[in-house]
Amino acid sequence: MVRWSCRLMFLLTVSLVLAACGSNANLVMNDVKKRDPLPMDAEVIWLQGAMVPVVPENAEFVATIENNMDTQCTLDDIVPFYNERAREIGANLIFVKQNVKKKHIKSTYSGNMVIMHSIVCDAVLVDFYFLPREAK
What we know:
Shape: elongated
Number of strands: 5
Strand content: 35-45%
Structural class: alpha+beta
Number of helices: 2
Number of domains: 1
Oligomer: single chain
Largest sheet: 5 strands, mixed
Radius of gyration: 19 Å
């Protein structure tokens, strides 16, 4: 009975770890207006909410996104990921609402065991906007 319980717990742990690997970010879309994707070389402007606390009044809200710390832990991973996502959904302005350091438990599967360790990641919450060209 004990052996069966250990196997069941092991399988449950592995399945939860693998299920967590499937998502790149948490994206919340606002369906008010669907936008066409922008060219992959289109300029994307970043505004830090702490420095510039307001978005230009003619900017159209597109989406809110927060990075998944399993796949984007550092700004080196997050910035290109957000630039690509912004262009894909037709946004050319990224407004950083929050950028904090958070402890994150990283799980890796090695052989017959799951190894868990704590790391410090950037947690970046942003809004995507479309800013008409004449307003830049």
